[in-house]
Specification:
By secondary structure, the protein is α+β, with helices and mostly antiparallel strands. The chain is built from 3 helices and 4 strands. The protein has a 4-stranded antiparallel sheet with strand order 1-2-3-4. This is Polyketide cyclase.
């Protein structure tokens, strides 16, 4: 069976959903990084992330020599976003990144915080 089964999958979303916006960001960002489209990755960060988070990511990236959004130097082979919790004006999602394929594939979990008022991503931490 082909890897891309998009003809059998139905995907949807809403601009009003902070969870959908996190999923949209990670999908587009991973595509941009995988394609080597540097400007697009920065434009996506500017559109989806708060200014404060962009500054903190730059500092993290300088210290860790890796992509702060992905917390890695490589590009994942799969991503998944799930609602985790909400409160105090924030929504929390868990982003699971898959590295490699098959039984040896590794996984990284990230805790992503969005501001409900703006729907912008305001924090990304190791989950």
């Amino acid at each position: 069976m082909p890897e891309d089964q998009s003809n059998e999958e139905v995907r949807g979303g809403s601009p009003d959903s902070a969870v959908d916006r996190v999923a949209d960001f990670y999908g587009a960002y991973i595509d941009a990084v995988d394609d080597g489209t540097d400007d697009l990755g920065q434009e996506l960060r500017a559109h989806y992330l708060t200014e404060d988070l962009r500054q903190r990511l730059a500092a993290w990236e300088e210290a860790n020599h890796a992509d702060g959004v992905l917390r890695a130097q490589d590009v994942p082979t799969h991503w998944e976003v799930r609602y985790h919790d909400s409160g105090a004006g924030h929504l929390f999602t868990t982003v699971t990144l898959t590295w490699g394929t098959g039984p040896d594939a590794g996984h990284t979990r990230l805790a992503v915080q969005s501001d409900l008022s703006t729907k912008l991503i305001s924090d990304i931490e190791d989950g």
